[in-house]
Amino acid sequence: MIKHLLYGGLAVLGMASAVAAADSPASLMAQYAQQAGVPISGLSASRGAALYRTEHPGRNGEAVSCAGCHTANPTQAGRTRVGKRIEPLAPAANPQRFTDAAKVEKWFRRNCQDVLQRECSAQEKGDFIAWLSQAR
Amino acid sequence: MNYLLRGIGVVAAVGVFSLLAFSLPSGDAHGDGGGNVLPRTTNKAWQQECASCHIAYSPAFLPKASWRRLMGGLDQHFGENASLDPATQADILRFLEANAADSGTSRMGSRVMQSMGTNQAPSRITETRWFVRKHDEVSKSVWSRKSIGSAANCAACHRQAEQGVFDEDTVRIPKQ
User: Taking CB atoms and an 8 Å limit, are B80 and A11 in contact across chains?
Assistant: First the structure.
């Protein structure tokens, strides 16, 4: 009986660690490409760069863009509106980026609303990571 | 009993245990530091989530009613979308309420409450009379200096703000 419980426990632990398995820029790009119904080669770094740089009218009429807080160069640290440092977005400068799918989704949800006044599509998210992954 | 049933039993037991463990308030107070030093009160989600954009403002700076309203409107948080998943949001709110200015858990909180009318629930810490009085010698031009930006940026002058230390000795106002 104890042995069986132990095996059961190990199986649960195994499942938990599979769920917590680290994501990577490549695995997230694959997921977003799949959601968008395109092959990975259908993601575009240049469209991602345009998404990052393009200014849009914000809620208060001022121009907002990703680059506004993250700076024009994503390998550099940015600043939040109240002056707190934002670690670089590009994985080349900050290997922690795009390693946690839930965190990535949280920030896309928030920041796409702030910059575009809507959610981003899977295609846009994939393009965005494609551009940042190759930023040096 | 076959293995499948046992497996389900174990999964259920683990599930119930983790539900219990994670639904308990996870805040931990270690007593009041007194003076202008905040109690070393922490909560993992509060620190992680609130401090991703600004310092994790102490719960003792606002009353419970303020925190409730603020946490209920995170999708429009002072002009930004700061929405959270419901479980994290509830965990942080529990921590904020348990240690709010009117929770009676800190001297700093009592001071904030002393200068506030009953039923008042300011949206911003900088709107409390306590904050205004404490900063009455700081002129408008100082707040707008480039390295400060706004009164929300405590750490620009209170160099140990992230550690909860607001003693006058630790204040260095940047020149530009």
Answer: no
State the nearest Cα–Cα gap between B17 and chain A, in angstroms: 13
Instruction: Please name the fold of domain A23-133.
Output: Cytochrome Bc1 Complex; Chain D, domain 2 (1.10.760)
How close is the nearest chain B Cα to the Cα of A124, in Å?
Answer: 19
- Under the banding of pLDDT at 50, 70 and 90, the label for residue A82 is confident
Task: Classify each residue of B121-148 as buried b or exposed e, where b means 16 or more C-beta atoms within 10 Å of its C-beta.
Answer: ebeebeebebbeebeeeeeeebbeeeeb
CA A69 to chain centre: 15
Which chain A residues are within 8 Å of B54, Cβ to Cβ?
80, 82, 84
| Both tokens assigned to A86 | 């934002």
Q: Is B149 on the interface with A (CB under 8 A)?
A: yes
Please, which residues bridge with residue A56 across strands? A64
By the CB < 8 Å criterion, does A3 face chain B?
Answer: no
Spatial separation of the C-alpha atoms in residues A49 and A131, rounded to whole Å: 6
Report the pLDDT value the prediction gives residue A59, as an integer from 0 to 100: 79
Measured between CA atoms, how close is B172 to chain A, in angstroms?
A: 16
- Per-block mean pLDDT, blocks of 10 residues, chain B (176 long): 58 51 43 58 92 94 97 95 97 97 93 90 95 93 89 93 89 92
ipTM of the complex, rounded to two decimals = 0.81
Sign of CA dihedral B77, B93, A85, A87: negative
Q: Is B11 on the interface with A (CB under 8 A)?
A: yes
